[in-house]
Amino acid sequence: MSILELQEITYTYDNKQYVLRGINAKMEAGKMYAILGPSGCGKTTLLSLLGGLDSPSNGRVLFDGTDIEQTGLDEHRRKHVSFVFQTYNLIDYMTPQENVRLIARKPPLPYLERLGLTKDEAKRNVLKLSGGQQQRVAIARALASEAPVILADEPTGNLDADTAQDIAEILKESAHEEGKCVVIVTHSNELAEQADAVFSLKYGKLQTII
Amino acid sequence: MNFINRAWLYIVRKKGKSTLLFIVFLVMATLVLTALSLGSASETARENLKKSIGGKFLVACDYSENNPYLKIEQNENGMLIYTTQQISPELVEQIRNIKGVEYCSAEDESLVTCPDMKWFAGNVPIVEEFRQSAKIIGTWKSSENSLFTSGRLTLAEGRHITPEDHKKVLISKDLAEKNDLKTGDTIRTEKGFDLEIAGLFIPRELESVNEQVTTYDKIQNLIITDLSALVEMENGPSVQGFKELEVSVLDPEEMESIMSQIKEIQGVDWKGFTVTEENDSYESTVSSLKQLSGLASAFLVIILVASVAVLSLILTLWARGRVHETGVLLSAGIRKSSILGQYMAELMLIAFAAFLLSYFSSSAAVSRTGELLAAGQKAFGVQEEDEGADAGSRGGSGIGTQDGIREMGPADLEVTVQLKDMILLFLAGLAVISISAGIASVSVMRLKPREILAKMS
């Protein structure tokens, strides 16, 4: 059974300019999905709708068969999804541990250590970490949140190839080993190739590639 | 992590911003607390003044041509001027029953000759006719007579004269001892009236050696009696009631209201009386305090408005810098109310510390202000004492009562930071913070999470 489902999703700016047109898709737990597409095609918009950051102009987003508007977008964001952004989006006055604890009740250190941060690094100010380390903190936060869905927007966009590969592996692991549904928006074919299913977004329409 | 934890982390990690806010709050709180304390002090001083000065007005028989009851008669001794409508004990009673009236000092006076009495001699030569005479005051209730209420006389033995008494007197203890008299004894007048001694009084002070005073005017020779005895002894149309009634009120600010209530009393033709307010001392004293209170209020409003403006400006500028953080928190499912709560909690925590510290800074400020005001008040008190002494010499009894000195004693002007001022400061601070944080956050908080995230990128 799909954990996330898009039903006839349409999104327009000012009721004129169509970004998404009648999109239908289903996503299951334990799989990693990639949405490919050129810049400005609406990938981030689609991710925002899945994550309850915005509402579609038409159509419904279902989580476990329930419309997320019915659940409440705050509630959906808090309980069902966690985000990983290209720019990491960490709170700059907090340590990695505190950033993870921001939304997770579990002890943060095991997650951070699993993602390669030392105890010392876990206590530093996040701005003193490298880009790769910061993205690992963001992923640790997503993993520790207990949300069954991870939505990642260009998670490797600012990282070098080796770190990008590490991050891709971690996300894949969290899907396959922890049963999370990972949805990645990217324009990187290398990252998309590691996904279990790949969608292409063009002219507001979503097509299944793999 | 709850909003309090987040707020605390922000405060301790963003030391520069927290310190700046702390200073802003400290300055604001010091100014607000100073203004509040000044306002409270002036209010307290006004209350003290009300208690110490009270208010007075004089109801007196009108001896001008405007009085339709005025009579002018020629007799063997010269010209007799009197009014047929005088102040009756019943009218005094009615006035006394008006709410807010503290004392009614009604009296009329004359001279009484007692051939058997040994008087204290004055230092002004007088004609033979008056050598065995003394001043006699007919009063309503001697306990409310200004001689006693001012403390000039104190009842030492016996009891006060009441309106129900007839031919009862109060004399000085000195006079009683000089004549070997005690309470219950009688004094016989030249006209054959026996006046029973109801009580003995002690004067606070006697006339000085240099003071020019006749025998009958000496305070040790003063006789205080009931009105009915005076009327019977005088036995003439000129003494049928009281000539003057001094009404003391508890709150000088209620004076006008009480005066208008008096004029509504039925059965009295007010064309025969004058009603004169003696409230100048209170008004002149309180006017500077009212000014101070007004200044403190205006100062307070300006500070509060300026605080909201400055704080809103600072917070609005900072809120722009916190769009990123707001977006991250929203994307993590943290509610807008919790985010606003965090921002408010940050301000509250800093403000709380600043407000507590402001107790000391404003205490120092108000202490200096208090010294200045006390110095001014002291100077004012000295001036009023002089005026009071003059006013006392115009007293109805004809004896320098020096009421003014007692009434115009310096009011307690203590400018200190009080608990209620601190509570008001916290309430005002809460309002300022809520308004400022609301103004600063509204532009970010009304956006959808995605719009905030778009701004972030």
UniProtKB/TrEMBL annotation, chain A:
Keywords: ATP-binding, Nucleotide-binding, Transport. One of its GO terms (molecular function) is ATP hydrolysis activity. GO terms for cellular component: plasma membrane. PROSITE patterns: ABC_TRANSPORTER_1 (PS00211), ABC_TRANSPORTER_2 (PS50893). Residues 4-210 form the ABC transporter domain. SUPFAM superfamilies: P-loop containing nucleoside triphosphate hydrolases (SSF52540). Signal peptide: none annotated. It comes from the Bacteria. Belongs to the ABC transporter superfamily. This is ABC transport system ATP-binding protein. The lineage of its organism: Bacteria, Bacillati, Bacillota, Clostridia, Lachnospirales.
UniProtKB/TrEMBL annotation, chain B:
Residues 39-264 form the MacB-like periplasmic core domain. The chain crosses the membrane at residues 295-319, 340-360, 423-447. It is a multi-pass membrane protein. InterPro entries: ABC3_permease_C, MacB_PCD, Macrolide_Exporter_MacB. Residues 298-449 form the ABC3 transporter permease C-terminal domain. The keyword Heme does not apply. One of its GO terms (cellular component) is plasma membrane. GO terms for molecular function: transmembrane transporter activity. The keyword Membrane applies. Keywords: Cell membrane, Membrane, Transmembrane, Transmembrane helix. It is found in: Cell membrane. This is ABC transport system permease protein. The lineage of its organism: Bacteria, Bacillati, Bacillota, Clostridia, Lachnospirales.
